[in-house]
Amino acid sequence: MKKIVLLFLLCLNASVFVGVAQTKSPRQPRTSQPVQAGRWTIEKANAWYAKQPFLVGANFIPSTAVNELEMWQADTFDPQTIDRELGLAESLGMNIMRVFLHNIPYDTDKEGFLKRINEFLTIADKHHIKIMFVLFDSCWNDNPKAGKQPEPKTGVHNSGWLRCPGTQMLFDSRTWGKLEDYTKGIISAFANDSRVLVWDLFNEPSNSGYMDAVVPLLKKSFEWARAVNPSQPLTAGWWHDHPMSNEVMLNSSDIITFHNYVTPEKLEAQIKDLQATYKRPLICTEYMARKHKSTFEGCLPIFDKYKVGAINWGLVKGKTNTIYAWDEPLPGGEEPKLWFHDIFRPDGTPYQQQEVETIRKFTKAGK
C-alpha cells in the first residue's frame, strides 16, 4: 500500500505544480490549529517590521548555478558571479534577497558550507542587501544527490531544481535526525547575525503532491527552529488552498509570507484579507510572472500602498531557465518573446528598461 501511495504522489508532481501555481486564490483557511509556543506576539512582529525599510528584492541564485547544490557546493560556488549579480540588484535599490539552502551540503561538508554561507553574506552586506534563507522546499526534482549536477534541459523552466529533502527522506522519519541537525546547525550559526533578516523554513510544503503527508515534517521544522530561538523572525509562506499545511504555517509564523502570481487586483484582495485576518507584517516572497499579468508595474504600487514586502522570482537569466514559463517549454531553446521571470541578461543589460525604472522609482534608488 505504501508503494502505491508513493507512486500516486509522485505522478501528481508536475500537474500539481503547474495547475496550482497559476490559480493563486486570496481565500484563506480557517485557523483551528493551536498557535505554537514561542511565536512572536503581534506587537513584537510589528515593532520589528517598523524598523525595516520598504523591502524589495528577488529570489536569488547566480546565473551559473542550475540548482541549490550547484550554488553551494565547494567545486561550483561562484563568489565572483554572486558579487557581480548582487551588484545589479543593488543598482535597482533592492535590499533583500530570498536564497535557498539545502541539507546535502550540510551533511557532506558542514564546515565548508557554513564558511561559504558566511562568504555569501559578506558579499550581500557589501551591497547593502539582507538575506531571507529558505531551508526546505517541496518543488521540482526528487532524489537530490551531491556531486556534479545535470546540465539544464533546453527551454525547460527550472529543470535542475531540487527538493529538500527528497521524497524518500520525507516519508522516513527515522532519517529526520539529519534534518534536525541541519536546521538547528544553520540557524544557530547565524541566529544573531544582522545580515540575515528572516528564516523561511519551508517553501510550498504541500507541492509535488505531498499535501497532508508533509505536515509532520513542516511542524518539526518550526519546532527545531524555535528550539534555537534566533533573533530573526520565522516564517513559511501561504501558496495555495491546502488547509492542513496552511494552518500550521499561518499559526506558527512570526510574520506572514505568501506567494502571488496573478493579477494586481487579486493581489490587492489577498493582501487586504491577510492583513485583516492576521494583523502581522506581510512579505510576498514570490511574484512577477509576466504571462499571468503579475508585473512590476502592476504590483509594486500595491505593495507600496499596503507596506508589504515584495520579492519577485528571478534576477539574472541563467541556468535555471526561468525566462521560460512553467507550462510552456521551448525545446528549441529560442528566447521567448515574453520572459516569464528574471530582470537582467547575464551581461547586465535589462530585459525591459521600463521595468528597471519602475523598480528604482519604488526603491528610491539613487536618492
From TrEMBL:
- Which residues are the signal sequence here? 1-21
GO biological process, alphabetically ordered: carbohydrate metabolic process
Q: What are the residue boundaries of the Glycoside hydrolase family 2 catalytic domain, all occurrences included?
A: 183-293
Q: What are the protein's UniProt keywords? A: Glycosidase, Hydrolase, Signal
Q: Name one Pfam family in it.
A: Glyco_hydro_2_C
The record ties this protein, via InterPro entries, to: GH (IPR017853), Glyco_hydro_2_cat (IPR006103), Glyco_hydro_5_CS (IPR018087)
Single GO term (MF): hydrolase activity, hydrolyzing O-glycosyl compounds
* Domain of life (superkingdom): Bacteria
This protein is called Glycoside hydrolase family 2 TIM barrel-domain containing protein
Write down the species: Xanthocytophaga agilis
